[in-house]
Amino acid sequence: MSRVGKYPVPVPSGVSVQIAGAEFIAKGKLGESRMPLSGEVETTIEGDKVWVKPKSETKAARMMWGTTRALINNVVKGVNEGFTINLEINGVGYRAAVEGKTLKLQLGYSHDIDYPIPADVTMKCDKPTTISITGKDKRQVGQVAAEIRAFRGPEPYKGKGVKYEHETILRKEGKKK
């Protein structure tokens, strides 16, 4: 039995939700998001709560029960509050700057890396060594953060590279004489 799926998704004030055919639509202060619904589950709106129930007791229906509930929760939270991921850059000469719709990264290579910022995502660099990625779609914000981190992931000896804000790097001891 799904431990996640049995709880309803609370809809905060200021967010309107509706089900149109096989699509869940949420509108809030950050815009509108749409999510396709699985045919394995039944989704209903009762007052200010969204309930998800499996249509049958098959394994696929039980798997989609918790997954659909979590995705609906992310859509509702995304249009109301949004999602933010912070990245830190460590290393001498490593820095980042937002120039228009491009993130310019200097990560120790012979060239600068120009990363085009997607339409639904906003980025800020308060300091040259921090990047704040914000958006209403949790999957897209996480994907953008992972792509930026992949340009120069943190290395274990000096900790140089791009890492998530709360990520801890397991450090290794260097060569011994």
Describe this structure in words.
- With 177 residues, the chain is an alpha+beta fold.
- It has 2 domains: 9-80, Outer Surface Protein A, domain 3 (Alpha-Beta Complex), CATH 3.90.930; 83-164, Ribosomal protein L6 (Outer Surface Protein A, domain 3, Alpha-Beta Complex).
- Helices cover 20% and strands 38% of the residues.
- The chain contains 2 helices and 13 strands, in the order E-E-E-E-E-E-H-E-E-E-E-E-E-H-E.
- It has helices at residues 59-80, 138-151, and strands spanning 9-10, 16-20, 23-28, 31-36, 41-46, 49-54, 83-90, 95-99, 102-106, 113-116, 121-124, 130-135, 161-164.
- The chain has a 4-stranded antiparallel beta sheet, covered by helices on one side. A 3-stranded antiparallel beta sheet has the order 1-6-5.
- The protein is elongated.
- The N and C termini lie far apart (57 Å).
- 23% of the residues are buried.
- The model has no long low-confidence stretch (mean pLDDT 92).
Question: Could you name the key traits of this structure?
Answer:
38% strand; 2 domains; 177 residues
Task: Summarize it.
This protein has two domains: 9-80, Ribosomal protein L6 (Outer Surface Protein A, domain 3); 83-164, Alpha-Beta Complex (Outer Surface Protein A, domain 3). The protein has two helices and 13 strands; from the N terminus they run ββββββαββββββαβ.
